[in-house]
Design goal:
240 residues; 12 helices; mainly alpha; globular; 61% helix
Length: 240
């Protein structure tokens, strides 16, 4: 079954508090908001539902960061997250409630950071996919860029990790391979190769699935892996 098909129903029997619980409770008529939030890890069966919720809620916040929610952005959210037509109504409920509530993005980002405190890879992938969504209308606005960076810092990602994600969004001709791999131009080839191998292992599709990244959004993660490979190829040529 699609992750989107279990997005709402799959959360009914799960205890989660905080802003996410309050948001779900607002249209599920449940007492989710009064329950205690659980810390998830990649072994938790609800990990993919939480990942999906994180994307929808933060996408809603980013989509109105510049004060404009365009049709292109809404279509892109559907297409880039591979939401089937049969599930769009359920997902739209979460999106619209998150878009209209009075909370900013910070409380949601903070709760997501706490939930995935021991699963940094999932946090990196949330930010990675948010960048794809922000590009929906052809250009990421300054407010959107600012919000995504702030989400990254709430996630306790380093400046190097956030810069690497932003750099991978560029075409192969324009990206700085050193920023992508999080290394310095003066580093020797052995050190750079070691960092490349580490990143390759971290962003391997099989590991991402085990870490709670739904298969429906995995293609966007694969594109980051392609950028990492491209960066390594460029540096090898430069160092020769």
């Amino acid at each position: 079954m699609s992750i989107w098909g279990t997005l709402i129903g799959g959360m009914l029997g799960f205890s989660i508090g905080g802003p996410i619980g309050a948001l779900l409770g607002s249209f599920l008529g449940s007492k989710l908001s009064s329950r205690t939030s659980k810390k998830l890890n990649f072994q938790n069966e609800n990990s993919q539902q939480i990942f999906a919720l994180a994307l929808i809620i933060l996408s809603a916040k980013i989509s109105k960061a510049d004060g404009i929610v365009t049709k292109d952005e809404l279509i892109a959210i559907k297409e880039k997250l591979n939401i089937p037509d049969s599930e769009i109504d359920s997902v739209s409920k979460v999106f619209n409630v998150a878009k209209q509530d009075n909370l900013g993005f910070e409380p949601y980002a903070q709760q997501i950071s706490e939930i995935y405190s021991e699963n940094k890879i999932a946090l990196i992938e949330v930010l990675n996919i948010l960048l794809y969504i922000a590009e929906a209308d052809g250009e990421v606005s300054v407010p959107e860029l600012k919000m995504i960076r702030e989400i990254g810092f709430i996630f306790n990602l380093s400046i190097e990790e956030v810069d690497s994600l932003f750099e991978t969004r560029k075409s192969s001709e324009k990206l700085n391979p050193y920023i992508v791999l999080g290394v310095k131009q003066t580093d020797d080839i052995k050190h750079i190769r070691k960092k490349y191998i580490e990143l390759s292992k971290v962003h391997h599709p099989d590991l991402l699935i085990n870490k709670g990244v739904p298969i429906e959004v995995l293609e966007k993660s694969k594109e980051k892996m392609r950028a990492i490979n491209n960066a390594w190829d460029q540096i090898k040529k430069i160092k020769k």
